[in-house]
Amino acid sequence: MKNLLTSSIAMFVILLGFTSCNNGNKSGSKSGALASNIAEKVYVAPGEYDSHYAFLSGGYSGNVTVYGLPSGRMFKEIPVFSQFPTSGYGYSEETKPMLNTSYGFIPWGDAHHPDISQSKGELDGRWLFINENNTPRIARLSLTTFETEEIIEVPNSAGNHSSSFVTENTEYVVAGTRFSVPIPQRDMPIKDYKGNFQGALSFISVAPETGNMDIKFQVLMPGFNYDLSHPGRGKSHGWFFFTTYNTEEANTLLEVNASQNDKDFIAAINWKKIEEYVNNGGGTMMPANYAHNVYDEHTHTATSTMKKEVRVVNPIEVPGAVYFIPTPKSPHGCDVDPSGEYIVGNGKLSANLTVHSFTKMLDAIENKKFAGEAYGIPILNFEDVLAGVVEQPGLGPLHTEFDGKGNAYTTFFISSEVVKWKLGTWEVVDRKPTYYSVGHLTIPGGNSGKPQGKYMFAMNKITKDRYLPTGPEMEHSAQLYDISGDKMELLLDFPTHGEPHYAAAMEAGIIKAQSQKIYKLADNKHPYAAKSDADTKVVRDGKNVHIYLTTIRSHFSPDNIEGIKVGDKVYFHVTNLEQDFDVPHGFAVIGQNNSELLVMPGQTKTSVWEPKQVGVWPFYCTDFCSALHQEMQGYVRVSAANSDTPIKWSLGEDIE
Amino acid sequence: MKKASIIMIIGSLLLLGLFKFPLWNIMLGAPQYPDPLGMNIYIDGIKGVSEFDLQNIDGLNHYIGMKTIPKADEMWEFSMFPKVIFGMAMLGVIIGLLGYFGKVSYKYFLGWFLFMSVLGILGMYDFNNWLVDYGGNLDPHAIIKVTNPDGTPMSYKPPLIGFKKLLNFDVTSLPHTGGYLMFVGMSLTLVAFWLGRKTSLNKKT
Ligand SMILES: [Cu+2]
């Protein structure tokens, strides 16, 4: 205990040292950032477009935010794993199924690592994938509609952290568990963790045309923590690499007990080999219970299906498919360079940065040069696989990205900086401070064979003194650097929302060109859609009342509704008849216990209202839609439960 | 004369372009419509330049009480014009053929041109009348009423040809491909007349 105390104090002193060090650097670089030529580099004049899209994970906000680069302007917040009253996502009847899980309805999520789909190793801008850490899930967003289209839960998993990275043709998106757990889950003493817990690495196939996801197989690995991952590419296409920590398999006070081994592992998985094994009937189907939620763009409705089994693979049954590469020391980030040759293991407690060679790894495997094995999985020799070491680059390396010009950029959490170094020579060529405590960094096209290395942005965990204060809590900060020259140049600070862990970014061209502007009313297959005012009606079905409502500038049809009774369950099915870009209408009714709706042109959304008091209650449009937006309103008459007021609806006439 | 007759036939046939391409185009642009709204006027009806332009123009116009853009079956012109154009094209071809075989003189070419011109002017006159009605005959219950400085109600008549500012909209009205083909075709019949006249004068001297 005393040791623990002294080591904590020592750490605290080190942290203090680096903080003050940062303060020292700061004043110098600030004057640089104020130089007018730097302001011009991020200035996007009114009416002009940013050159890049950036998709930042929202961490505990459960969403994705869309930014423009280089301006740092936030364009949109896309709800993924969390309810979002702005649009009614997770509140409307159509989108509630998106948040269904084996634990029931989960209104919140912890979104970490977005990744853009790829074709032939290049970003194709079709979909964005993102993982949810707490209730293990993977979501797929359409980059045409910028909506969440699919969410699949991952069974046998806990802390879905080493996710959601895609292979170079989007064959798979992976979901690696951070926490190992009993598989299948059972009641057992926690102290018996070692040897009894397992870590599931899930390979989720992505259908090439639709993007639909399906868990093809799970590799049940030893009970380590699987922290981060990246796919092989180019020459290492067909492999996936995962960093591990807690190879000690400790079950308590991990900050000490999981930091005992000098080296943990990078798990190298030959997924092509396992895929072949599985295609030939390998692996076993295991009972499971997990939700698969799919949103249909034509019915504007999601459905949730519970899946009952999953295929699991024991790695020692597929010889040659899984190896361990020793990597110092509690490695976090696991990053593969654009050529696929170098695998960077960022040992967060290591003074040096370790880079492994894929070629050397294959050599060692071929010559069967193993240092031993863990749970039947061969361990390679550290020296046999080592490509090089970046000596003393900083403290607490986390993540590395590449510029496609032979340089790598690594973030250092403890020393709060980004360090640029050269692949092959391993020399540090530049370093820049970040404010403060940087986590991930992103180069557009970073996780692909073709990085678009003009910009890099670092995502900082702490913001203090960078913006006007907003109480004890400040939004996190991103910092944009120009990396087109020899030296990194800080261009811009911009606030981010939630806790952005990682971000995916790409040049704007493909996404901008394919972006959808409206939903075609003619394609609306929602069962309760009213595609014209002639289709509007109010239908009673026992205690349920379905109101087929339309919106168009600037009225609802119908706008007078009678015959609703206390105790009814009233479904407002709102169809927006507009066919004009960016003209949503809102819907809100007094006493609504869920959220308003924001209905896009051509779309139908449903909100349930359970009136509790008799009266005449207004509803109105919540989105300023036109010059007569204030007039866009209506009334619902609610009668006593035992009354016999008949159902009636009208627009533009007096009810007699 | 043979050359002149062939040009007469080609010129007349160019009218048939109106069955494929719009005669006229009206574009409405404004800061809130960076992609301008537009309508293409064909001889058999009006279509939006983009799929939902007509619906959106009608949506905007309802504030100021303008009628909706007429459907093809709501104006007699749209059933009459195709017949007239087809008839004139065929008449031109027949005159050209007769000229080719020496049955009629080049003067018929000019006759066709003058007849077509009269019809064209009548067409333009009719079109302008429609624009006046469309832009000025407003619903008295219109939500927004804008008056001119002299107190008279503002007309939203688009220009017959050229550019006009209507409230915050920039309205441009110009012939379109079918219209240009018709003008070229009509010009060719004039050329045919001039060529026929030249050859005939040459023969005489
Ligand atoms: Cu509205």
Residues in β-strands, percent of chain A: 35-45%
How much is the radius of gyration of chain B in Å?
A: 21 Å
Number of discrete helical segments of chain B: 5
Principal-axis shape of chain A? globular
Record field, number of beta strands of chain B: 5
**Estimated share of beta-strand residues of chain B:** 15-25%
Biggest chain-to-chain interface with counts: A-B, 9 and 9 residues
Radius of gyration of chain A: 27 Å
N-to-C order of helices and strands of chain B: HEEEHHHEEH
The structural class of chain B is: alpha+beta
Give the structural class of chain A: mainly beta
The order of strands across the largest sheet of chain B is: 3-2-1-5-4
Q: Can you give the mean pLDDT of chain A?
A: 93
Low-confidence segments of chain B: none
Secondary structure tally: strands of chain A = 45
Instruction: Let me know the largest β-sheet of chain A.
Output: 10 strands, mixed
Shape of chain B: elongated
Bound molecules: copper (II) ion
Strands of the largest sheet of chain A, in order across it? 6-7-8-9-17-18-13-12-11-10
Structure characterization notes:
The complex is a heterodimer of chains A (656) and B (205). Chain A is mainly beta and 656 residues long. Chain B is α+β, with helices and mostly antiparallel strands and 205 residues long. In chain B, 50% of the residues lie in helices and 16% in strands. Chain B has five helices and five strands. Chain B has helices at residues 2-13, 53-61, 77-100, 107-136, 177-204, and strands spanning 24-30, 33-42, 45-48, 162-166, 169-175. In chain B, helix 3 (77-100) packs antiparallel against helix 4 (107-136). Chain B starts with a helix and ends with a helix. At the A-B interface, loops of A face helix 2 of B. Copper (II) ion binds at residues 551, 585, 621, 623, 625, 629, 632 of chain A.
